[in-house]
Design brief:
Length: about 180
Amino acid sequence: MSSTELYKFKKDGTAEYFAEVKNAFRGASAIWDIIEKRYLPKYIPSWATNRELPYSRTSDASNRQAMNEIWDLFNSPNISDTDNIVLGSTFDNVIVMKDDIPKLLIAFREFEGETSLKEQADLIEQTYNIDSDLIAIAWNQTSVNSDAWLSSEFVVNDDDEYYLPYNLFKHEGHWNLFEVE
C-alpha cells in the first residue's frame, strides 16, 4: 500500500525519513479534491458524455491545466489561511522550518475533510517535541514515486552504491512554505 512519507532535516542539514502514514490517497490527492470542491466551479471534462456526473480535475489526466486550476489557488486571496498552508504542504520540494511547525500543526488539525492530516500532525508534533536535532520537515506525498529527499549525488564505495541524502545547506531544490512571496 502506498503511504505519505515524512522527513526531518537534522542540524547538519541532511534529510532523514522518520515516519509514514498509510494510503497516500488520504494525503495530497484527498486534499486537492477537497480544495477543488470548496473553491472551484463544477468540472466537466471535454470527453464527458454524461454531464451530470461529478467529475474531478484530479482524475482528468489528459488535461494538465485542470490540475493547475487547483494548484494555482495557492496564495490566492480567495482561500483561507488554513487551506493555503495545507495546499502548499502537498507541493513538491516544500519544507517547513522548525519555528513554523506549530502553525502547520494548527492548519493540519483545523482542515476539514477526510484526510491523513491529523495523523501526520501527531507524528510531526511527536518529533518536534522530542528531537533536539530537528531543524525542518518535509514530505514525499506518495511512496510509489522516487524518494524526493535524496540528492542527485551518487556514491560508489567498494561494495555499496547509494544516493546521499538531500542537504538544506548544500542543495537548492527546496522552498520554505512560510517564506513564499
